[in-house]
Write a structure and sequence with these properties.
164 residues, alpha+beta, Fructose-1,6-Bisphosphatase, Chain A, domain 1, seven-stranded mixed β-sheet, 7 strands
Length: 164
């Protein structure tokens, strides 16, 4: 029988520090988007705005500096150098919903997920229009930032106990 800890490829402290990093990245991406006045297309690929490139740069620089390899919707796979390299890869959509943002619709986000050995370990989605943030850590469930996280397994155990 496996415990919840056996299913997690990293410890809670490491997952928590990654969530903190993701939060700092999202704060910076929000600043870039909210101060942006250039909604022209980048010319790199269809549907990509100049702000997509600027927000991607924020994510890429921070993740590589922290030792993560990454897969970005905007720029593809990038590898961290040096001895400080961390396990796994961060999958990032720097500005999901850039067309919404360009139209003034408040549904656009930065999404980040750290994957180790094929298992999503820690993730965050931040609505850049409102600042509302959701995070998830393997084995602990998903929740609004600062809210109480409970995994599906914990909710099922609680429901079983209350029905008994």
């Amino acid at each position: 029988m496996h415990s919840a800890n056996d299913e997690r490829p990293v410890g809670d402290d490491e997952s928590g520090s990654v969530i903190d990093l993701f939060g700092a990245i999202c704060d910076r991406t929000r600043d870039v988007v909210m101060s942006n006045a250039d909604w022209a297309e980048s010319g790199v690929r269809a549907g990509q705005y100049n702000v997509d490139v600027m927000v991607d740069l924020v994510c890429v620089q921070a993740l590589l500096a922290a030792g993560f390899d990454l897969l970005s919707e905007e720029t593809g796979i990038q590898r961290a150098d040096g001895e400080g390299r961390r396990r796994g890869i961060v999958v990032v959509d720097p500005l999901d919903g850039s067309t919404n943002a360009s139209l003034g619709l408040p549904w656009f986000a930065t999404s980040l997920c750290w994957v180790v050995d094929g298992i999503p370990v820690a993730s965050m989605v931040t609505n850049l229009a409102t600042g509302e943030r959701f995070e998830a850590i393997a084995g602990r469930g998903a929740c609004p930032r600062g809210g109480r996280c409970r995994s599906a397994r914990a909710r099922a155990r609680s429901a079983t106990r209350s029905s008994a």
